[in-house]
């Protein structure tokens, strides 16, 4: 495993291009595009203000930079560095911006969610979508890029409109049986749209492409409901993470629950492997000690390394009781993700912030628990194989695969707290992001 030197970064804005050739990063108002393999700078662009969001077009030829404070989006071309485009929403303001699947249209959401403006880079034409709902996830494209669903709010009622992305014509418009719609997400095969309600009401609705209600699922009433959802890559399973610290799995045939995964503070099943991260002080040979010590030696002396031990069950995990009188309590299933081969589901229970739970989907049982020393900030699956990367806000990256578990210290000087990471599409490398820097980790084929 090799690491690049650290590079400056702001706003956690570091993204690999979809084709895997480039890596874009932002430093305040500058956009830096590097070769993903050599990290040589290919292009350097200067924007009008601090960049708050970046996104690659699907064909990796363009990159948009959104400056929400000024209501401006700037678009840059990698093929023609002299060409650029500026979209100014003016007094309407700007709260969100994204590409359409064809990489030639930009969708801007104005302040107060008054409308979504669809800008064409080819014809310079403009279309408007009225009444978009201000919710966490109100815009969703099918994976094949043919259709777009938009959550809307009109006359105190929730609606969903489905558009054809080729010409932005309205295909279907229907009302949803939600009190206060919170999010929408297509199944990867594009046949089913999941619509879920605010956390005050446990309700998830499944609609077909033509707007028919296929099924409604409610696990319980009169308590905080859905916190997160995830589709399996095959579209066969829908995982629903709830505030009651459970994950429920629905199947794609009857849309009924096939199982539920609990996240107790004590892991008691003898068949579950619990990897516990333990710190170990580095051993230094006294003959090598010099005064003053070299920089490399000083770094190895004062950086604590860690490794995984396999704990004997039962294992008690650190459980944090949520503060009842605060908004957005730290409780329930805040993160969940399926592996690319559909075999595993990784989850995090916010009540037990230092643990990652890995479930075997074929056997529908808990396979592994990773018990970390610090709270888990983020995890993501390798896009090519069942390999999970985890970061916990320190200078280490953790990798799990069915073969085992490893903790790797990033050899960077100074304070490098990894709070986010992003896999390359090949699975051979990943970008490790801290608040002020990023570096790239290169993995050998046979590692882990």
TrEMBL record:
Pfam families (UniProt xref): WD40
GO cellular component: microtubule organizing center; MWP complex
SMART domains given in the database record: WD40 (SM00320)
Stored InterPro entries: Centrosome-WD_assoc, WD40/YVTN_repeat-like_dom_sf, WD40_repeat_dom_sf, WD40_rpt
PANTHER family: WD REPEAT PROTEIN 8-RELATED, WD REPEAT-CONTAINING PROTEIN WRAP73
Identification of the protein by name: WRP73 protein
Species the sequence originates in: Ardeotis kori
């Amino acid at each position: 495993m090799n690491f690049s030197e650290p590079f400056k970064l702001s706003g956690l804005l570091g993204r690999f291009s979809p084709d895997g050739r480039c890596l874009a990063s932002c430093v305040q108002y500058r956009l830096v595009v590097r070769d993903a393999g050599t990290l040589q700078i290919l292009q350097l662009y200067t924007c009008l203000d601090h960049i708050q969001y970046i996104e690659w077009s699907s064909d990796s030829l363009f990159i948009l930079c959104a400056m929400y404070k000024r209501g401006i989006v700037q678009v840059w071309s990698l093929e023609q560095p002299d060409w650029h485009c500026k979209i100014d929403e003016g007094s309407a303001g700007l709260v969100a911006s994204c590409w359409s699947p064809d990489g030639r249209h930009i969708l801007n959401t104005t302040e107060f969610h008054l409308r979504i403006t669809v800008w064409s880079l080819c014809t310079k034409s403009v279309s408007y979508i009225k009444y978009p709902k201000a919710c966490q996830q109100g815009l969703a494209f099918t994976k094949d890029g043919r259709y777009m669903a938009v959550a809307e709010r009109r006359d105190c009622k929730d609606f969903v409109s489905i558009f054809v992305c080729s010409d932005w014509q309205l295909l279907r418009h229907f009302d949803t049986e939600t009190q206060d719609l919170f999010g929408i997400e297509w199944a990867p095969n594009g046949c089913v749209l999941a619509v879920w309600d605010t956390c005050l009401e446990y309700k998830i609705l499944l609609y077909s492409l033509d707007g028919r209600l296929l099924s409604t699922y409610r696990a319980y009433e009169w308590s905080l409901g859905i916190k997160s959802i995830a589709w399996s890559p095959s579209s066969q399973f829908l995982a629903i993470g709830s505030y009651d610290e459970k994950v429920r799995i629905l199947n794609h045939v009857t849309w009924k629950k096939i199982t539920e995964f609990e996240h107790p503070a004590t892991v008691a099943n003898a068949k579950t492997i619990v990897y516990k991260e333990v710190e170990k002080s580095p051993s230094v040979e006294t003959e090598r000690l010099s005064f003053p010590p070299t920089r490399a030696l000083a770094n190895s002396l004062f950086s604590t390394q860690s490794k995984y031990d396999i704990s004997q069950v039962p294992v008690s995990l650190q459980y944090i009781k949520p503060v009842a009188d605060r908004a957005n309590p730290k409780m329930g299933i805040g993160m969940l993700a399926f592996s690319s081969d559909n075999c595993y589901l990784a989850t995090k229970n916010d009540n037990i912030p230092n643990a990652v739970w890995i479930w075997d989907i074929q056997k529908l049982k808990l396979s592994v628990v990773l018990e970390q020393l610090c709270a888990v900030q983020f995890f993501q699956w390798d896009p090519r194989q069942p390999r999970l990367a985890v970061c916990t806000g320190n200078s280490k990256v953790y990798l799990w695969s069915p073969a085992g578990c490893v903790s790797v210290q990033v050899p960077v000087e100074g304070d490098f707290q990894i709070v986010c990471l992003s896999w390359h599409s090949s699975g051979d490398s990943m970008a490790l992001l801290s608040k002020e820097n990023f570096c790239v980790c290169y993995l050998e084929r046979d590692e882990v």
